[in-house]
Each structure stands twice: as structure tokens, then as C-alpha cells.
Amino acid sequence: MASLDRRHFSLAGLAALAACGAPKPQTPKPTFKVYSGPPVTQVVIQKGQRRMYLLNGMTVLKSYDFGLGFQPVGHKQFEGDGKTPEGLYFVDRFNPRSRYHLSVGVSYPNERDRAFAEQFGRDPGGDIMIHGRGPEGNQLVRQKRDWTAGCITVSDEEIEDIYAMLQPGVPIMIHA
Questions:
Q1: Rg from Cα positions in the chain
Q2: How far apart are CA 11 and CA 31, in angstroms?
């Protein structure tokens, strides 16, 4: 009988602990968009045309116009150069608390980028994102389309879609 009481007590304790992890009924649900379509298998960015494509295989799921770094021509080489990278990168992080509404990380710099900058004793820079505008960007975009330090910027509504559609590891091909 004592083992039955202990078993009952253990089960009651586990149930109480499980209830601790359950969300409170008054906790608001996140307001992020949800995407349930075909997976995005690659992102193709054409800098010169200012056009981004989210693809499933060869099918374009969505496309967007965008702004770039304040020096949009050429491949990013050093911190502060205002250029947006070119080449193959990957989605490597998501920031729901971005000062530019939402942001999706681009895996710049890669090993080649770091090695190039190191030859010159320079920092390659980093923290390249696809992001919205947020309040600050909405003011800047009125003055100049290409205003970031090297990031790719879309409207806040568009970044909500992009944020919902992408997954970590999706390749991002950035063309001149």
C-alpha cells in the first residue's frame, strides 16, 4: 500500500510540475504571421534590379522590391563600407525585437569574406539582415532608397511575410 501511495504522490507531483509550464490563460498569443504554403527553398536577390524572389524550386512564391546599403554597387568588403554582400549566404537567425520591425539574418561574413578583410588588416563587418523599416527607416527611406549600412530593407508588412516564410539554413543568393 505504501508503494501505491508513493506512486500516487509521484504522479500528482509530476502533474503539478507539468501545469507550471503551461501558459497562463491571460498570456497574449504572439501576433506573428503564420505561413502554411510550400517551403521556401531559396532566396534570390538581384541587387541591380532591386528585386528579391522567394522560391520553391523554380517557382516564385513571392517577390519584393527593396532598398540596400548606402553604397549599393559592389560586394561588401569591410565594416562601414555601406555595401550589401554578393554571393551565396544562408538564413542564420531571426530577430523578433529588431529596431527595424523584424529581421532575418544573412550569414555574412563567410570564411572567404573574413580572409579577404584580414589581408588588409580590416574587419569585414557583419550583422547583415533582411529587415523592415520601423519608425526610423520610414523616415530615412523618404530621403534615400538605399540608406542601410549594408542590409536589405523592405516594408514592415513585407518583412512580416518574409519572416513567416523563411526557415534557418535557406540559401540566399545575392547577385550584383
A1: 22
A2: 36
- In the chain, the amino acid numbered 62 is K
pLDDT in tens, 88-137: 999 999 999 998 999 999 999 999 999 999 999 999 999 999 999 987 65
Q: Which CATH architecture has domain 42-175?
A: Beta Barrel (2.40)
**Cα–Cα distance between 104 and 128 in angstroms, integer?**
9
Residue 138, all three cell numbers: 520610414
pLDDT, tens digit (0-9, with 9 covering 90-100), for 41-74: 999 999 999 999 999 999 999 999 999 999 999 9
- 15 versus 58: which is more confidently predicted? 58
Burial of 14 (0-12, 13-18, 19+ CB in 10 A): exposed
pTM: 0.79
Q: What element of type H or E holds 21? A: helix 2-21
CA distances from 101 to 36, 74, 81, 150, 165 (A): 22, 27, 24, 17, 16
Report the distance separating Cα 160 and Cα 163, nearest Å: 5
Q: Which residues are catalytic?
A: 131, 151
Grid coordinates given for 155: 516594408
Task: Provide the pLDDT confidence category of residue 147 given band limits of 50, 70 and 90.
Answer: confident
